Fold these 4 entries.
Entry 1:
Amino acid sequence: MRILELKNVSIRYMTGDFKQIGLKEFLMRKATRNYQVKAFWADRDITFSIDKGDMLGIIGTNGAGKSTLLKAISGIMEPSKGCVIRRGTIAALLELGSGFDGELTVRENTYLRGAMLGYTRKFMDETYESIIQFAELEEFQDRPFKQLSSGMKSRLAFSIASLVKPDILILDEVLSVGDGSFKKKSEAKMREIIGGGATTIMVSHSLDQVREMCNKILWLHKGYQVEFGDDVNGICDRYQELLDGTRHIEVK
Amino acid sequence: MQFPVITKLKQHRFLFEELVKRDFKKKYKRTVLGMGWSILSPLMQLLVMALIFTQFFGRNTPHYVIYIFCGNLLYSFFSDATKGGMGTIMGNAGIFTKVNVPKYLFLLSRNVQALINFGLILVVFLVFVFIDGLPITWRFLCLFFPVGCLILFNIGLGMILSALFVFFRDTQYLYDIFTQLLMYLSAIFYTTDHYDATAQKLFYLNPLYVYITYFRTIVIDGAIPSAELHFLAFVYAAVILGLGCWMYKKYNTRFLYYV
């Protein structure tokens, strides 16, 4: 069953002087013709589909449009052209560490994050203890979140997120967090989720990881779709050649 | 009839509840004093206004303290809800750039919090009305109408402001000036009797004045306001809410680029 289909998806991204300015500055810049907005296509004409149980790896150098594409798949962004057809629930684990509220306690943040990820209150009541245990934060439950170290924050983020049971799971470089023992623990947990049969889309800069885990590859370069298919090793080899500088891609 | 907003709210009920809790806790800083302070602060404002302005305007205005309190009550609700609502998109950028949730949830949760605060002060207001010896009659039930309209008006204006704030970061300062001017134009501590008939009509261009006048007509005059006042109260709320919804719909997918 086709669980996710992208048809000719193009996403136009805007950047330029409009960020962080006030009305006065906007008018001044307009008046002095110093107001520049650049629109560019972060993704162009991406077409692919995956089936239930697939493990898709998205590879590409920086600025290839991987993260933007993930945002379109998860529904955070609307594609400027084309369409995304989803046949199931989606959970996107993007940049886990941020988005917490420093004023709230660890417990309150856990519930808020759970709610953001679409869990129910009942589910949170049942799993709260094990989340805290997994994150090794038993002693910090009622402390303000801002008192945690950044390692603790990402541990908590991971522990909450790792309970998702979506039809499609989207991972942006979050296969493992923390250091030492927690890194091992989190990677094992992630493999357990993926092994559980969820259709997974992952962005990773580690080609070894992609070769080992994925059965389909989407290769993006400067917004263009270079290759898509199940010839995992073939595509990874050609991508490696690009990284080594022995291959060049002509951008239309 | 099914409204998409209601279905979405049901779907995101847990998140909405957690957001309301978050706003509530951050506002009152988990202390009883924090809650008391939010009542105390408008009361102190009332006290100072009553002390000072009674000499100027109070002599010919019956129930002058209640007269100011009506104005203060509605103005502080309006300013709390809209000023707080303005930052809801920017302040929650960390959430909606990672999870696909409707952005008005943040605004609605902030408005719930403003409404709770308003409710607390409203109780104090009714105590004052009782102490002042004004009769509390069945007509007070009509107060649900301007309050309801003002809630919609606040949500609508909150939508407009929160969208503008994403695009222009000085919206905050401009709006501060605007609300201060609006306060002086809302006849909170003076009466409009001294102006000629045309000028008195001009006051009705100010939605806040309409809501305040509605309150005073019921509470102080003990009368049901005119049909025109009902009409104005409703139209202002509907227009602003419509405009706010339109802005959210139009710019919904563009907020992402600005944060």
Note: The mean pLDDT of chain B is 90.
Entry 2:
Amino acid sequence: MPKVGVYRANSVIYFQGDQGDKIFVLQRGRVSLNYSDIETGKDIREVIQTGEFFGVKSALGRYPREENAVVLEDASVLVFTVPEYEVFAAQNIRIIIKMLKVFSNQLRRVHKQVENLMENTSAVNPETGLFKTGEYYLRNRMYSQAKYVMGRYLTYYPAGRMAEQAGRYLESAETALMRYGDGKGPAPLAGSASPAAAQRKSFQEAEQVEEEEEARPAAQARPAAQAKPSPQGQELPDAAKSYYNAVSLFSQGKYQEALKGFKIIADAGDDPEYSAKAQFDMGRCLVGLSQWDLALQHYTRIIQTLPKHPDMADMLFLMGQAWEKKGDPERAKGFFKKVLTMNGDEDSSARIKAKKALNAMGGT
Amino acid sequence: MSDLSGFSRFARTYQPGEIIFSEYEPGDSFYLIQGGRVRITKIVGEIEKNIDILQPPEIFGEMAILEGAPRSATAIAVDTVKVLEFNRANFEILMMGNPQIALRLLRLFAKRIYDQKRRFMILTLEDPQAKIADVFLMLYETQGASSQAGAEVDGDKREFKVTVEDVAHWAGMNIAEAQTILGHFSNQRRVELYQDRIVVKNINDFTRFVNSKRKK
């Protein structure tokens, strides 16, 4: 049970710097909390209202008192120990909620003050910070983590400065994860081998590399890198923007919404490149939704109309997967084998996935 | 621990190694650990630094209460982790039925306010040398009890497991400036600089120095 404490005018309930373990409620009289403002050094007096709690933060947070609690007029206060206060508060949850709101406002205010004074230091812009975090994970072969961060980058900055590169990194991380597993495989990024070299290979340099790549004839670039170059400061074309919006929905598992987005791009056909990509991704959404028949129909139609679609191998793999899920392993194997007979990149994720699937189904 | 079975709609499970949130990601939820351990990390230069390992029933991500602020660290599942995920909009629902969690959050906010105020005190010092000295005083006060930082070597000598980058960050100055000041302190034999730690020769000397520079 809390005790009642009686204090004479001009006495002090606690001093700044005291290690406090008591919480007070003013019942009668006048008490003032005196302290000096951190920033200006000015003396501040905060008069406590009757019924108000004081000394809560330092007692709960177990840190020294930050003010002198001075009695202005004879006062009586209720004195709680921390456990007593907790029992009391647990029965008056509204009080805790109210205090949580007060505390969170104070936290916001002091956080803002800190930020204002930190402003002149080299604060990292969150977009660049997020991208570099993903880059760090990829460089250090932490593929699952790289996948997550690049996915988040695309979710928050679908038309961001580094969106295209993030898309490429996401794909590299996926492929490496599938092929080698976390922590294994050859250097996924320039500078992966030696940490010192990695540090020098800053993001700026990575961007230069990207620009060099873009200068090459498009035919030499890999399919994922075919997206139109987006020089710094220039907006991505609308088709690209809508496309990455849909990709970001897909990466969050919102297949139905992503499907709608891809369909609009595919139907509009404004940009042949993005419309082809969107066509392919519509099928991925259908697979995500376990709509095996619709996915098979969709891809069959693309194969008939666009036999040279850049994502052919991936489509065949997904068709194999759909047949497998439908309970037809023979047809599934047929599609997986077809992926392996296709010409092209030995390391493509479709080939790796097809090989894995065939192994899992009991040999080739 | 209170009965949380009614909150299954807020339950999330993460596999070992899975990221719960990443540094710099905008955050609007915070988490209550129900099972498994969570590693809090930060990438500093080319090193992923472990800041903390948390376990049930700890709360993390609570700074999401600050609107629009990006996450200041990454949270990764160490084991299979079960959490309850909340945000500003629905946390009241949880708190109403679970005073113990509300109290835990209240304690955490109290501590965060203090930590931020303490950082603010460093930043308001005008003298750059005093700022650097005050960083060590802060570390000594807030982490003095733990064996990690502020460990007593002998007498007034204290050892801190921090790097120049860490000190520069807390002092709100660039690394080169912090390096210069620490070099100066080292010449005066007030500190010893090592790769992974900094030793303050006389912590009381730093206290007097900082107090003399603070506005009264």
Note: The first helix of chain A runs from residue 56 to 61.
Entry 3:
Amino acid sequence: MIILPLKINNLSYKIDNTFILKNINILIKEKNITIIAGNNGSGKSTFLKALHGLIDVPYDKITWNNIQLSKIKKYQSMVFQTPLLLNRSVLENLKYVASKRNIYNLEYVINILKKLNIEQISDINAKYISGGEKQKVAIAMAIIGNPKIIFLDEPTSQLDPAYKNDIENIIKNLSISGVKIFMTSHDISQIKRIGSEIVFMDSGKIIYHNSVKKFIGENHKNFIKNYITFG
Amino acid sequence: MLNNILETAINLIITLNKDLFEIISLSLLVTLTALIISVTISLPFGAFLVFYKNRVQSITILISNTLMGMPPVVLGLIIYTLVSKKGIFGFLDILYTPTIMIVAQTLLIIPIVTSLTYEEIYKKNKEYKLLLNSLNLTKYSKLKTLIYECRYALLTVALTGFGRASAEVGAVMIVGGNINHYTRVMTTSIAFETSKGSIELAVALGLILLLISLIITLLIKSLRRIS
């Protein structure tokens, strides 16, 4: 199934009369890593949630290859900033997600554990593993069932450099294997390392959309310039 | 004097006194049956309420929370008026039977299990809402997952219900009538034996009740630690 282009047509979202997303129009065609950047409160995470259908927006505002979001949802998965894992072993967490995707093959699940190099913690309760390991488990859960789109909400913001490197490599490999990645990030050096395309947001609006290369190379107004300098 | 009473009471327990164990058996039968029925109804109902945020849900929780603190003697009185000869359920002829005692205790536990289940599932749903929604699950599937994730907490809820039912005296006294060898349970027996001055049996039953309470407390403590 072809899922791109992603087309967003005048999307707005408000909570208690405050616009969190405002008049968003965008067309994303490339199957690469799209970074959603911006300062705190710019609407990045809400935008990601809207793309994944986690917040209610009118059905015709977001389409994937002219297909409605509700029909594409089964091809998507998401990794949250704080990994959400169930109170059971790592293996059981993966088996749970697999069962929800109608996969009952234990070997398949074990292969994913191996792929992410976390098979040594498979029997440990997910509550007791480190933050980096939790994020790896969350990514392992997200790739079960071979989704075509993965959303990552600042997946490395709480990790040390070693785990950050590990996770970035996993994300890059997923992109190489053909998965469309949308990832929010604050970290400008990370954006340079793994991002192909950038969507820059401010106060719920998209104020810049281009390749990361151009984003870094261009002469920006003060606001984005400061972000690039101090990010 | 206290020494003598305690000695006789412990002796009644050690020698497996027939009357004593008949009362304990009936108490456990009534309370456990009431617990099973109320958990079967209230646990899914309390969990179900989490997913239906509307006025009916708010009112149901409000009523359930209010009924949690209902004095058992008032509940007993209401049931009595309903099942006595002149009551609308008088034709059932179940007043002063173990059946109506089970009904009374079931009604006593239902609000407790409903409200506490709702609280537990509500908290867990808040924690896992994003994950469950991102997996695109049906409400039924979410409910199953949340109940499983709250399994230890829900066992604690059930034990709380058991503790409340096994310790109450008012409702079962009114609807059961405290008939010897038929509807006499631990709590009604303690009240009755004390009133007639037969302290030994009352103390023996009191010790058993305390032991049950201790076991429940220890179970709840260890379940909390696990969860």
Note: Residues 2-226 of chain B form a domain with the MetI-like fold fold (CATH 1.10.3720.10).
Entry 4:
Amino acid sequence: MSGKNLKEYWKKNIITVVILLSIWFLVSYVFGIFMVDTMNNVKIGGAKLGFWFAQQGSIYVFVVLIFVYIWRMNKLDEEYDVNE
Amino acid sequence: MSVQTWTIILVALTFALYIGIAIWARAGSTKEFYVAGGGVPPIMNGMATAADWMSAASFISMAGLISFMGYDGAVFLMGWTGGYVLLALLLAPYLRKFGKFTVPDFIGDRYYSNTARTVAVICAIIVSFTYVAGQMRGVGVVFSRFLEMPVNWGVVVGMVIVFFYAVLGGMKGITYTQVAQYCVLIFAFMVPAIFISIAMAGNVIPQIGFIGTAEDGTYLLDKLDQLHRDLGFNEYTSGSKSMIDVFAITFALMVGTAGLPHVIVRFFTVPKVADARKSAGWALIFIAILYTTAPAIAVFARTNLINTVSNEQYSAMPEWFKKWEGTGLIKYEDKNNDGIIQYVADKDVNELTIDRDIMVLANPEIAKLPNWVIALVAAGGLAAALSTAAGLLLVISTAISHDLIKKQIKPDISEKGELRWARIGALIAVLVAGYFGINPPGFVAAVVALAFGLAAASFFPAIVLGVFDKRMNKEGAVSGMIVGIILMLFYMIKYKLGGFGGGTPEDWWFGISPEGFGTVAMAVNLVVSVVVSRLTSAPPQEVQELVEDIRIPRGAGDAHAH
């Protein structure tokens, strides 16, 4: 594989990681900690939303994030012919 | 059958299973001993990682801890799961592509320096020993509570079992026993949880019961908040820690998780880079099952407890109350001599003290579950403690045989000789861990939580920069690791153990507790590494090529040449 393609592959990888980590930060630190009081004005079932994100929601989103990453990277690996 | 008979049967059965697996999965080469031959399927590795990761503390103490901390318990829930996102996105695939055996291997090769390797070995050993002592103690405690055996004998039994399969099977034996241990521990955790969820919230799924209503139609969480207000406690759904501290602790636990050597090394055991990503996903699913159930148990158990004891006659307490009183985990002191239990926030009036561990250990009894379920909890707690202990012991033994002897002291050692040293290393590690389990030094309990801070402050930046910053050189990484871990140790000793003049929470820097200080130490490590590396010369060409190479997945299968 040529050097240019490798650079492009790496750049797309970085963009994917940055987007996913932004969501990671948003659901745990922003929803669950920094804005917890504001979020708590909304309720999901019997739980205040901020509290729920801190104790449940963020974990579900973490799982989804990893699987999105797996799917996206497998596609990238194939596209740039670096898969095994 | 009595609880004790059931416990003996279940514990004996699970132990026989672990030993059977160990005999079947003996390691014949160093590659099998260190990384299970690199052929573990991703789902299996996910389960093994989950068991490796979830310790006696996750199984026995966490739900109870959360039930006393309320909202603040989120630091553990998010902190000990969010790190897997970092592992999957920033570390696991690249370390797998690098394709050697240990974390110090990566640090030593990437930073072309045996000083860096030695610093990494020391960090790995400090982190693993603080952690493993707690596990051996956990084994002893489970034995003593369920089988009425002295704690020390419990530790010895645990040592013999771990010794057997860690020394015989190495990573290969550990991996497959951990898979079995995951199944035992998750079953043991979920069965009582489901029963209690049905009883308290009328829902089979605890996660849904958590946000659901009680029998009288009010939401459980609203009810619990009300109970807390009535008794003068902080509202359950709001915390008492400062926001900055909650942030710092959560972040330190996440980054620390991603930097723990016994977790990282699990990703060396799969065949391909794509499998390393997949196993991180599976691991988090298997962990999330327990971690999303724990806060539900916390709410059910807390509500149940307050309803059962608050303002009730002491003489009318159910049988479990008396039984756990005997173990000292529940203490009742009738201060106003009215025979009624006053359980309130005000320390002068409060008459009841409850150990957090009771929430999981006594939950099945409180919910009046059958005897075999109660016994199951004992087997589950043992599985959680043994699996984590084994993973840590392996890191210590590998650090000795591979990173020190093979890589530094005696590079021409034969395959057989190295394998023998790996086994001797495991033996020494078991003995030391057992010693600390029997004679726990006072500082162990205080520093276990800080193992994460140490991992965050030392490994995480060095590994991430090693992959993502091609310009990072040995000067930068070594000075970053040293400054990071010394700063963390200093803060820990000053504010946790009272050294260097000690200090109270008012003196904490930026209001951050020692548990959360890993976040600051990691940031300092990062800055020092980057600044120093830019002031010194770039890493050699072959190291830059190594970085290029680990960034693409292809070719991981045969990257084992030494």
Note: Chain A has one domain: 3-79.
